Amino acid sequence: MSVRTLPLLFLNLGGEMLYILDQRLRAQNIPGDKARKDEWTEVDRKRVLNDIIMTMFNRKFMEELFKPQELYSKKALRTIYDRLAHASIMRLNQASMDKLYDLMTMAFKYQVLLCPRPKDVLLVTFNHLDAIKGFIQDSPTILHQVDETFRQLTEVYGAISAGEFQLIRQTLLLFFQDLHIRVSIFLKDRVQNSNGRFVLPVSGPVPWGTEVPGLIRMFNSKGEEVKKIEFKHGGNYVTAHKEGSFELYGDRVLKLGTNMYSVSRPVETHMSGASKNLASRTQESIAPNPLAKEELNFLARLMGGMEIKKPSGPEPGFRLNLFTTDEEEEHAALSRPEELSYEVINIQATQDQQQNEELARIMGELQITEQPRQSTTKGDDLLAMMDEL
Amino acid sequence: MVAADSEGPKDPGIRMFRRERSIPLQGSAAALCNNLSVLQLPARNLTLFGVVHGPSAQVLSAAPDGVPLAQRQLHVKEGAGVSAPHITQVHWCVLPFRVLLVLTSHRGIQMYESDGSIMVYWHALDSGDAPSGTWSGRVLVFDIPAKGPNIVLSEELAGHQTPITDIATEPAQGQDGVADMVTADDSGSLCVWRSGPEFTLLTRIPGFGVPCSSVQLWQGIVAAGYGNGQVHLYEATTGTLNIQINAHARAICALNLAPEVGKLLSAAEDTFVHIWKLSRSPQNGCIEVEHCHSECVSDTQVCGAQFCDPSGSSFAVTGYDLTEILRFGSV
User: Fold this and answer.
1) Partners of B105 in the beta sheet?
2) Is B323's Cβ below 8 Å from some Cβ in A?
3) Distance CA A333, CA B324 (A)
4) Which residue ranges does the record assign to the WD repeat-containing protein 54 beta-propeller domain (chain B) (predicted)?
5) Tens digit of each residue's pLDDT (9 = 90 or more) over A190-239
6) Alpha-carbon span B297 to A236, nearest angstrom
7) A237 vs B54, B86, B249: nearest CB
8) How many other C-beta atoms can be found within 10 angstroms of the C-beta atom of residue B63?
């Protein structure tokens, strides 16, 4: 499969994560002067987003990301987002982190599936980057980092053929295969059916470069058109009237990848009933050790490039709940179906001591210096999360 | 000159095909092109189906009414490597004296007896390529004995610069055991070959910047399906484009032929399967085509479709994330 898929996967999932966190932080937003010490303010929200974006677009990290490499498993990737989500004062319980990851993955799966052309996944990525730049308008340094990533994307993907984009799309779909978590915002908008599958419309504009189906043209041996016949193709398509822009600034035309959340549309997931394909799911989670070792190499490389800003002084870690109440969050943690557990990688289990130490050191930077105010259920400590299997 | 819709049945209430019993799959179908292979065994009252799930492929047999009988899972051969490799295609090769089941992946080519029970041959592909991971575009030709594992790589054909997407063959007119062949690649280029002691390149049909995902060959007609939803029909000997069909709104994932009647099936990611009738004009021998049937597989990104009998009276469909093979039969 394509070795150029990871940057697109990472940036788009990261973009969705920021949309969701932004929405949740706004929803829990209390005006600065009225806020108690343990409540989120506008300043806090901006700071969290800043810190995460700064970590995401760190130059060393991006360098590692853009190296040609195979995609790793969902659980390896989940580890990166765990770290990213904790790049600031914000803390998430396991249940909220699970829900966050569910939403991120289903959103990007939807976007990839509905992309008119395989190449349009680049426009989706640019939509995410445009929105990210909106979050950090006041920080020229980070803005520059994002523009730099933009330039890198254009350099790498600008030269790629339609065939390679098709392969990238197939690689992404392979990554998202068998995920059918129902997302309430998708159900309400009728883009997802109640069985968890996305609606594929048979109307609207055709992709740029495709003609509206329904015409048969016949040519003679000299290449001259001699006859045209129309046929009923069954859909209701129209011509695409404009191509989206691949420049640094421009009208992307495509809406996929723009922010669909707002304060009035809360984010919820329903866990689908027990998946019928338990066989295929369990096969992925019982990955043999050599595979896990490769993934740890990958994680060590990638996260070694992540610079986590350590909180200076005795700052509290604020907990963000992706559910409406603490009770709901606790219930979600207890009732999460077995086959949907992400089984975060156990770094203690590998034989390679040196590599293990390196990764443990990187992970150690995430240790919270002070306990958050709210009562916690399962450990906020990422290392503790890592040791659970 | 524009002619009006020339479909057969004028009454829209008359449907040509109806849904029949589906065959459940152990794993969902992967979003690959040509992701359904069918082996028709009318003498044994059986049909075999092959579908790629990802790291595994499933081969199963079913009775004529669709009742599943036996199934088997195949995997890529173990070896050193970074991550679990994925299967790219599972396909039955029907040869004059035997049928082989071929499994391809980035690691290599595995050949089995037709029921997938025994691997008879393994050909490793170079893994030492640059991490850009492009395939070389070589076409490998193997000599297959009537029995046993003495399979030998006899030729490597150079004709493509980008990865091969599909290969189609047809017994050449009036010659025993000799086939003509078409190969297609990621850039949309096609090569037409004549076989013999060695393969000779007859003609090359240039691409137009869009991958050709599937190709078929029938009575000197090359049918090619492209990433922009078009089906092109070319004269095989000259490479001339005779017909261009704006068939689908998304990339075509599979083409298949029912050779007895010249029916062509096209399936695409736009959820549609279309059936066409190919023929030659009695006056001047020019290629002609007629649209016969359109089937919408709701909310399904189709990834494979094949006729299940040589007269084209039934066909089967697979879709991304779908854990069953959908079957359609003539009304």
Assistant:
1) B87
2) yes
3) 32
4) 16-331
5) 999 999 999 999 999 999 999 999 999 999 888 899 999 999 999 999 99
6) 15
7) B249
8) 12
